[in-house]
Structure formats: structure tokens, C-alpha cells
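ok so I'm stuck.
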Amino acid sequence: MAAATTLRWTHGKHFVGIDSTGHSVVLSGEKNGIGVKPSEMLLIALSACSAVDVVQILKKKRIRLSFMEVASTAEQDPEPPWTFRKIHLTYRFSGEGLTPKAVEQAIALSQDKYCSVAATLRGVAQIHTEFVILPEKSHDAA
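replied:
not stuck anymore, here's the structure
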């Protein structure tokens, strides 16, 4: 299985990344740039990779999500290349039929078996996870 992307420079430290299906994302190497910082894109990719798995696993368990988000924080080395060493993911859920056991299993399967981004990062960074099951409608304030 192969992956293919294109990164196109637009100007200054600004770029557009294009995936194999033609979808794009704006990235910026400037502190207050117009796009996502490339290093933070890695955290978004990890969160998204795992979230796709978790949503699918919970769907197979016939659990109906009404809300899900994954927040990430990370510690990087203080010197270049500022390697990520610790990454913490907090999953927040609302939905019908959610149980701690089902959520814990879904996250573990994603992190340990399915998520290619987690598998790639695991050799360099420690990835820790936690989750919160929110009552319906409470996620609006989260």
C-alpha cells in the first residue's frame, strides 16, 4: 500500500499540502502564519488517524456517537529538530450506548493495531491516552 502527497510552496513560508485524493490543507512555517504549523499537523494527523478508527470501531459495536473530539498536547525537545517525546491525547465523547469499556477497547485497538501514524511515532514518542464520556448536550460548553 502506497501513499502519495504533494506539497506546493505558495509564498514566504506558506504551503498547500495535497493528498492522494486531491484534498488540500494550508500550512505555514511562520508563527502567525495563515496555515497550520507543520509540527502541529503531525498531532492533528495522529488525532485524526485514531479518531477515524475509533468512530468505525464504535459504529461496529452499534454505538451512536453524537459528539467526538480529540485534543492533543505534546512535549518537544528544547533544541532542533524539536523532536516530540511525549504526546497526550484526550478523547471526548457523547452518544447513545457509550460505555467506558467500549471506548477503552476502541482506543486501544486504534493505538495498538490500526493507526499508522501512532505506529510510526511510537518508536520516538510516548503516546498516552485518556477519555471522557460527556452527558448529551454538555459538549457544547467543552
